[in-house]
Amino acid sequence: MKRISLLAILLATLAVTGCNTMKGFGQDLQKGGEKIENSAERHS
Fold this sequence. Notes:
Elements: H1 2-42
């Protein structure tokens, strides 16, 4: 029973960490897109 509980806690921790990582990646990607858009607007 202890192994199952430990495995469940480990998987939950990895899931939460993965979500935070993908959220940060999405924010970085959005900022990069905004910079490209602003640069295109300045040069048109």
